[in-house]
Every structure is written in structure tokens, then in C-alpha cells.
Amino acid sequence: MLETNLEIPRQYRTEVKQPQIFRVLGQDGEPNEAYEIGYKPTEGELAKAYRWMVVGRTLDKYALMYHRMGKVRSTYGPHEGHEAADAGTALALRPEDWVAPHYRNLTLVIARGVPLEVIWAKFFAKSGDPDKGRNLTIEWGGFKKWRILSIGAPIGHQYVYAAGFAYALRYMKRDEVVAAYIGDGGTSTGGFHAGLNFAGVYKVPAAFFIYNNQYAISMPVARQTAVERLATKAAAYGIEGVSADGMDLLAVVKTAKWAVEKARRGEPALVEYVMYRFGPHTTADDPLTRYRDQKEVEEWRRWDPLARLERFLIRSGIYSESDVRTIWEEAEREVKEAAKAAEAMPDVPVEEAVRDVYSFVPKSLQEWLGEL
Amino acid sequence: MIANMAKAINMALHEEMARDERVVVLGEDVGRRGGVFLVTEGLYERFGPERVIDTPLNEGGILGFALGMAMAGLKPVAEIQFVDFIWTGADELLNHIAKLRYRSGGEYKAPLVVRAPVGSGVKSGLYHSQSPEAVFVHTPGLVVVMPSTPYNAKGLLKAAIRGDDPVVFLEPKILYRSPREEIPDGDYVVEIGKARVAREGDDVTVVAYGAMVHRALEAAEKAKASVEVVDLLTLNPMDVDAVLKSVSKTGRLVVAYDAPKTAGLGAEVAAVVAEKALDKLAAPVVRVAGPDVPQSPVAHDAIYAPTVERILKAIEKVMAY
Ligand SMILES: Cc1ncc(C[n+]2csc(CCOP(=O)(O)OP(=O)(O)O)c2C)c(N)n1
What we know:
Oligomer: heterodimer
Helix content of chain B: 25-40%
Strand content of chain B: 15-25%
Protein name (chain A): 2-oxoacid oxidoreductase (ferredoxin)
Order of helices and strands of chain A: EHHEHHHEHEEEEHEHHHHH
Radius of gyration of chain A: 22 Å
CATH topology of the largest domain in chain B: Rossmann fold
EC number (chain A): 1.2.7.11
Pfam families (chain A): E1_dh
Structural class of chain B: alpha/beta
CATH superfamily of the largest domain in chain B: Thiamin diphosphate (ThDP)-binding fold, Pyr/PP domains
Largest sheet of chain B: 7 strands, mixed
Enzyme class (chain A): oxidoreductase
Shape of chain A: globular
Strand order of the largest sheet of chain A: 1-7-8-4-3-2
Structural class of chain A: alpha/beta
CATH class of chain A: Alpha Beta
Number of domains of chain B: 2
Largest sheet of chain A: 6 strands, parallel
Bound molecules: thiamine diphosphate
Strand content of chain A: 5-15%
Shape of chain B: globular
CATH architecture of chain A: 3-Layer(aba) Sandwich
CATH class of the largest domain in chain B: Alpha Beta
Radius of gyration of chain B: 19 Å
InterPro entries (chain A): Alpha-ketoacid_DH_E1_comp, DH_E1, THDP-binding
Helix content of chain A: 25-40%
């Protein structure tokens, strides 16, 4: 048989370039030359972001503790390691902008201005919970006042409606942007692909963030995709993508500002934040016995977002060691006081169980309430 | 051995994979993690990554992939982590898996099993608590099974895997760890399509399935009347004869199910009895179910599913008629 050359010449083939990971802060908090690239946050902004992060980590710690004591209702999903990505992307937004969160965005929720007492009320399913005790701890259902779009547990949907919401904002001639969040596991969902596709086609004012924290429950990111960097996915939808260190506040602020302001001009963008989830997936998970070893966790610990930012702040003279101590102590006090206030709230009344199913309460539900 | 339902299902998977090389397991976290409820524990170590497949996070992908495998001759057992997440795969399940045999004039078939935890009662909120069995029952082409004890869970799953139809196998998550019961050592199957009389009685029939069987049994113990409890086990095709036989004997019917009341499976049971045995009824049928609200708010989880007290009240009501 004649030998055939099956090769198709290069010019007919697509090429994918895997981006490098944009990083500013070293482990010791010293900035590299990338410090000069893009947006430079002011001292005030840095201080604000740092505070959010400290409060975020402290709240996370107590949420786990109170969960163990049986006070936090339903499962809780730890957030440690995600603080810089949340604070940095929040800093890139204007107060009038919107966020379509992923469930693990605790610092983001704090940064949007949700009072700690309200968050605790939600964790305890008390009457101060805007969701009226209906959702899991970290599903943000009814936080509209803080411009947080409503999410449920099924992963991926937030990307699609972030795109639709952004389309509507532009239609109504509003200068607002939507920031949408998803995990690495979420990039396998139909919602992720539909969201980016629609955003690219309609050029909506939305910035898309992927939190690549290496795992979706037990599954490493290599089980979600065969590409090296998730940011390359942007190319397939005709939008631009960037990869950055998600545990480096400066890298996050610079890339998030790029994406958000680009979105405001009608050019949706995608940023992959490379990071790590230090804790288990949820309080019902035990990673160390099943799917990852302690050495790996310790390796990533060296990139801890709080320690690096703290070193940078001290190094640049914005804070002293004692300022830092005070901020941690204040956070601890605030978090505990807010928990106490929330615990004292009444439970969500049973009558609430039948409300909000429709704009009215149907007869069958009124009857059911009477039967109880 | 004495086992709980999670272990019993795990045993069925081990045994069927060992028995038949065509059986493969796929889903999110089913491999090294052993499933979030540890139902697939040990399979990965024993049968390897080619047969125990950790998939990307995409339910449509899982179900469509399984369909392709089944068409080609494998016997996939797909796990959906919680049934609440099946909807992004609904097109695959309801439009394609269910209709394959019919639309191909019997040329193709989809012998696969879709396992998923269902039900309320574990304070898991709106997206980890649903019971959508009525939707699957309403879809011709799907066999729908819901076990109630470790023994029948194991036997029914083995039958489902050996069968030639797509089976939606719904596991009440509240039953995973308890009760426990004796499981025989040797191989056995429990026939699909057959209900069981879980308790004999003469005055009232309570039809239930899944976790509600245990509450119905408890209510029966407490009731002043003599209560018969019929456990459906297979929801589609339903064992209508078993229901009619019991109702013909007792003349009274209560249906208990952990799902929104309206257009739930209880409506089907009541309608069948109304069509075929109305003359045997001494009292109107009573349904005990969840309210028509999204199942099941964290704060009010406890008041969602039928409780023993509510079933007892229904029994008293039909007795007093
Ligand atoms: C559609 C859907 N399928 C399955 C689940 C169950 N589940 C909850 S979280 C999770 C892993 C998500 O991982 P990732 O998107 O990487 O986010 P991370 O938990 O790492 O923040 C899975 C499979 C779900 N919530 N939604």
C-alpha cells in the first residue's frame, strides 16, 4: 500500500498558547517587577482589603468552630486561602456593580458590606437571615441589598445569568458591571460554557473569574480539563483571558481591575486565579485520608495570602507589627460579638415556610399551615 | 453480615463488577473519594480507573457518556451526587435514555443504572433534599426504583444492573447509615416490579416507599386500628395488583410520601385505586406528603416530610370516616 502523509499543515490548525501565571508578591511579601503593571491600589484600598481578609479568615475559623458545636445549621464550606481573590476582585468593583458569586466567596460577601450579624444569622438560620433559613450556609439566596445575585447549589448557572443580567444593564443604559465567580470544577458545567459564549457573542459588561483552587471535592483539576491553564478557555469564546496568582492580593487587584474596566467598555474578560483551598471541601469532607497529602497542603501554605500581604504592608510602612496585631484582635472581637447578637435572634417563624413560593400564598398552603 | 444501606449498595456494586466485566461505575468523586456518601468505597482500588471513572463536573456529560457506553454494550452505573443536580442532565435522561429503545424500533437499548440520593430530613436545604420521583415515573421508558432497607437495596440494585432497561435507582439518603439489617452471604436479587407487604393488617392500608416506609411502620405500631403497610419498592412499573389486593382487604387507604403533595406519586396511587377499586373503599383516600414548597428549607426541615404523628392522624381520620 502507498504510504500517505496524514499531516495537515500548521496554518490550517488552531494554536493555543498557555499563559504564564501573573504574580506580584513573593512568599516574603516583596513585590517583583510586575508591581509596575496595571492598576496600583492606594494605601487606603490596601488597608481596606487587608481588613476584609482578616475578618474573612476569622469568621471562617469561628464558623467551623461553631459548626462543630452544632450551632451552625447544615454543612459549612471553609474558605481559607480564598481571601485575597475575594478582596482583590471586590476592590476592583464600584459599589454599584453586581456580583454573581460562587458558594465559597465569604470575604467577597463581607467586602460587599453585608454585616457580620447578618451572615451569622444565616449560618444559624435565625430571623435576621435574608434567606429566611431556606438555604445552606454558603448559598447566597437573598442578598440583593448588597448587589449580590441569588445563587443556589447547582454549580454553573451563575455564569449564564450573569451574562443575561449584564446584557440588561447595558440595555437599560446603566454603567454597571457584573462580576461572576466559579470554581475549577464549575468550568466543566454547561452553565460555564453557555455563559461565556453568550457573553462573547453579545459583548456584555461582565467580568468572569475562575477560582482554580486545584480541587472539586476530591477531583484534581486535571479531571476537569486537559488544558494546562483554564484561562485559555476564553479563546474559544472570542474573549480575552488571563491567569494570575489568586493568593496574591496585588496580582488579583491588577488583573481584576483590567477585567472589570474592560467589561465596562463592553469587552467581557476571563481571569483564572490559581490558588488553593487549605481546608476540606465542606464539614462533611476529609481530604487527608482520601485524596491529598499533608505535604501538598504545607507546600501551598507558603503562599498564604494573608501572610504575604501582611509582610508587604509592614515592609512598605503602611502598617507596623502592632497595627497588624490590633486588626486581628478587633476582627476576633467583632466576629464573636456579631455571633452573640445573631444567636439571640428569634428563629424563623414556621409561617415563613409557605411564603415566597409564589407572589401569593395558595389555598393549599394555607390549609397545610392550618393542619400543622 | 449486618449492614446499613450504603454498605449493602456497595456490596452489590462490588459483586456485580466482579461478576460481569461490562459493568463500569462513573460519576463525580466515585473513585478515590469513594463517593460523597462512601457508597462506591473500595471499587477504585479493586477495579482500577478504567472501570471506576471519576468524571468532570457535568451531569449531562455523565448521563450522555453512560448512554453511549450502554449503546456500545457496556453496563454503566452512573452516580449523580445528589438527585437535585440531575437536571442539567435531564435532556439526556428524559429525552434520550428513556426513549432510545422506542425511537429506534427496538434496535438500540440503554441498559444502564442511574443512582442518586434523594429525600429530605438531613437539614440540607433546597438543593440537597428533593424527591423528583414523580417526574421520572411520568417518563415512559424509565424504570424507577426506591429501596427501603439494606436487604432490598442490594437485591434491587443487582437486578437493575442485570436488567435490560434504564433504571433510575433512588436512594433515600436518610437511610444510608440506619437502619441496619442482616444481609445473606450468597448472591440474591430482589425482583423489580414487585411491592412487598411490610406489615400485615386488616383495617387500613398505608402505601409508602423509601424512608416513609419506616415512619408508616412506626405509625402502624402506635395506631389503635390494624394497619397494613405496603412498600412499593418499584415506583415504575408500579405493582398495582399488590395495592389493590391490600385495599380490597382493608377498605381504607393512606398514601405517605416525602415530596410536594400536588401531582406526586400519591396522586397516582389514589387514582389507580379510584379507577379500579372505588367500590371497595369505605373512606376517602388521604395523602400525607410535603407541602408544595421547594423541598426542604433548612430552618423548617423537620416539618417537611410526613412524620409518624401525621401518618397516625391520617389513619385515625380514615378510621373515623
Ligand atoms: C451541578 C452540580 N453538580 C454537583 C454538585 C455537587 N458539588 C458541590 S461542590 C462540588 C465541587 C465543586 O468544585 P469547584 O467548582 O472547583 O469549587 P470549589 O469547591 O473548589 O470552590 C460538587 C461536585 C453541585 N453542587 N452542582
